[in-house]
Amino acid sequence: MKVAIIGGGPAGLYAAILLKKQRPGADITVYERNRADDTFGFGVVFSDATLDNFEKHDLPSYRRITQEFAYWDDIAVHFRGTVHRVGGNGFCGCSRQKLLLILQERARELGVVLHFEADVDDESRFADADLILLADGINSRFREKYVDHFQPEVDLRTNKFAWMGSTRPLDAFTFIFQETEWGPFIAHAYQYEAGHSTWIFETDPKTFERAGLKGLDETQSAARMAEIFGWFLDDHKLLTNRSMWRNFPMIRSKRWVKDNMVLLGDAKASAHFSIGSGTKLAMEDAIALADAMEKASDIKAALDVYEHGRREEVEKTQHAADVSLVWFEHVDRFWDFDPVQFAFGVMTRSKAITYDNLKLRAPDFVAEVEKSFAKQVRAGGFDVDTEKPAVPLFQPFRLRELEIANRAVMSPMCMYSAKEGVPTDFHLVHYGSRAIGGAGLIFTEMTCVSRDARITPGCAGLWNDEQEAGWRRIVDFVHGNSAAKICLQLGHAGRKGATKLMWDGIDRPLDEGGWDVVSASPLPYFPDSQVPRELDRAGMNAVRDSFVAAAERGERCGFDMLELHCAHGYLLASFISPLTNTRTDEYGGSLENRLRFPLEIFEALRAVWPSHKPMSVRISATDWAEGGITGDDAVAIARAFAEAGVDLVDVSTGQTVRDAQPVYGRMFQTPFSDQVRNEARVATMCVGNITTADQANTILAAGRADLVALGRPHLVDPFFTMRAAAWYGAKDAYCPPQYLPGMDQIFRNSVRDRQDLEELRIKAKPKTRAELKAEATKPLAAE
Fold first, then answer.
1. Fewer CB within a 10 Å sphere, N or C end of the chain?
2. Which CATH superfamily is domain 382-741 in?
3. Is the pTM of this model over 0.90?
4. What is the pLDDT of residues 646-695, one digit of tens each?
5. Which residues form a coiled coil (predicted)?
6. Homologous superfamily in CATH for domain 2-330
7. Angstrom distance (rounded) from CA 727 to CA 138
8. Helix residue ranges per DSSP H, 454-582
9. H or E element, residue 160
10. What 3-state class would DSSP assign to 37?
11. Are 613 and 401 in contact (CB under 8 A)?
12. Could you tell me the sign of the dihedral formed by the alpha carbons of 563, 672, 690, 702, in that order?
């Protein structure tokens, strides 16, 4: 077997090592354009989990690597004159040059042939090779040569960064957030060997321009950074090595394999330096390829296994990197945060670390976070304990005169179970049980303002007396048997109306018994959906009046709060999105025009809804489609509603057009809530694949939302919030007197269960390399 590897970085060298171990008789050659001891950048960083993987796959190189590493356990966050140190992280740093030399030496030991200063731009010279690995880096010639095949997407990010080094010793992975006369600068720094540390400087493009960095050479740039961070560098110099300012390219490739050629490492996909995973991804690509080669019957099958088996893990890492880099790009959103809340945001920015696991590894730090959050609640007028505070999820919240006992919300979810719009016994049990279950606030499903405003024949409504009586029965039960507040969500289906029940074919048009539908423009949802009638002024008046009438009925029912549904492609959303609004009158064109009718409806509702009761609006913060609503648009939309008197923005996304391409994942819509809250300066409720109380605490403590809506968890567990209260020891949680014995039991059990789980996690956690190294160097006790 003959293997040619183009690129002698970590991906190419480690792949050569692993493949040669598998096939000692194979002819494996690495071609590297630079010299053997050339390297650009300073240190690389690995987690203990990554080193576990290296140990498993090649013990000799693992041992050499770990002998050279600098170890640390803490992350230190410097912000506005404070330092917060968070332990339990288990990271290791090594010189990139030393790593390459170790891998080169190991490859030679195994019989791999290494050619340096070998600039390869044509793979035809390897026509006799069985396998060609393209590991030629982030600027891969071969990825670009076959761009039509590999189909890479390159997202050049906005922030500027420069990679430098220093002789400044560091005992923690260090983030420094520095305010300057030009704007914020960030330093990501870590020690990788005695007397040497890596320093990556980052700033936004406007600050970069104002600071006069454009056009400066490496020496001049280093001098400017030394001025800004000199207080911390402590007379240690900054070192340069191709340390020019640039923009980070996020690279994704649709295909990784062409014939017998395969992309590895940065040539295939990149991950932002803020999560320190570039070299990790490269070397784990090599592991995945070697594993595939060992298991598959031939090279073609192996490459297929590699590409399809490895992609999910790479995309998960890239998603974490994306979320992290966006946090750093918009660090100004959080600049006025309390320093401890800011530091918590740094730690949890990528979603890899959450409230609970941070509490396990750094309990004192999380205790500080809890106290800081409670102090903010007390400043808002609540008499809460700030010395032994409840966790964020069980802190109260106020909207106008409405006090909500905790931040857990049952999300609005259509049940499609009404009879001619009338809520039934099913609805009484559904809403009543969730209210008794402890949620601070529950939302009704989208309640339609007229018969023709329904999505399906099973949708609930509020346009006649029978429906009003049905809803009053539910509201009275909630108020009489729980501490929960209940919000009425009003909406109009628009072009997504006259469709089947969800379980019969979601959004599919009815076969019979339909009704006429309206929208901002005559665009059907599916090609075979009913073409909606473009709403004219008379139609707008009728819709407005039906909303007002429904709101007045809602007030008579006793609802505590009112929400206007302007999301998910329904009528009002169809006006807001340019993908569904092609009008040429005063209600089309600019965002200001497209908002005109939804704001008119909101203002009409605000005029009849009691002034002491809050109102919210649900928006789609992105359409997840080219040319649609973006996060920046969502900020403008939120500001417009805030000026009209909205108290809370319920931040959802998508469902506007059928060809949308949402990026799913844990808490996948929370970044939009974060942006709206901290740029528009309005309270937000987040929603979207939030499944645990741990995630809710993480979101709240980091200042990404004020309320957390959970949908599917509440579908299967009406007592989700009560269970969470028991788990976190929130003893002030309300429980109906009939259920108090059960509440006492679950609180007692949860104390023991939580202790047992934490002890198991602590015992199961392997020692970090820092701990192992300390034990290995500890002097023997005298006999």
1. C
2. Aldolase class I (3.20.20.70)
3. yes
4. 999 999 999 999 999 988 888 889 999 999 999 999 999 999 999 999 99
5. none
6. FAD/NAD(P)-binding domain (3.50.50.60)
7. 46
8. 465-481, 502-505, 537-557, 571-576
9. strand 152-166
10. coil
11. yes
12. negative
Tokens of 365: 């730090």
Please report where in the chains the tokens 């409806």 appear, as a residue: 601
SS3 at position 573: helix
Q: What size, in residues, is the chain? A: 783
Contact 395, 406 (CB under 8 A): yes
User: Token pair 């396998």 is at which residue?
Assistant: 131
**Tokens at residue 264, please?**
């590895």
Helix (H, G, I), strand (E, B) or coil at 259: coil
Supply 340's token pair: 């401890």
Distance CA 416, CA 446 (A): 10
Amino acid 175 reads F
Q: Which residues contact 379 (CB under 8 A, 6 or more apart)?
A: none
- Exposed, middle or buried by CB within 10 Å (0-12, 13-18, 19+), for 569? buried
**What's the first-to-final CA gap in the chain, in angstroms?**
57
The percent of residues in the chain predicted with pLDDT above 70, rounded, is 97
How far apart CA 310 and CA 517 sit, in angstroms, is 46
- Number of Cβ within a 10 Å radius of residue 344: 29
pLDDT for 600-626, tens place per residue? Answer: 999 999 999 999 999 999 999 999 999
**Is the Cβ–Cβ distance between 404 and 446 less than 8 Å?**
no
Q: Hey, which residues are catalytic here?
A: 570
Q: Which residue ranges make up each domain of the chain?
A: 2-330, 382-741
Task: Name, in order, each residue with C-beta under 8 angstroms of 540's C-beta and a sequence gap of 6 or more.
Answer: 597, 600
Residue 168 token pair: 């400044």
Q: How many angstroms separate the CA atoms of 158 and 623, rounded?
A: 22
Select from 150, 164, 326 the least CA-distant residue to 251: 150
Average pLDDT value for residue range 736-747: 92
Distance CA 361, CA 354 (A): 11
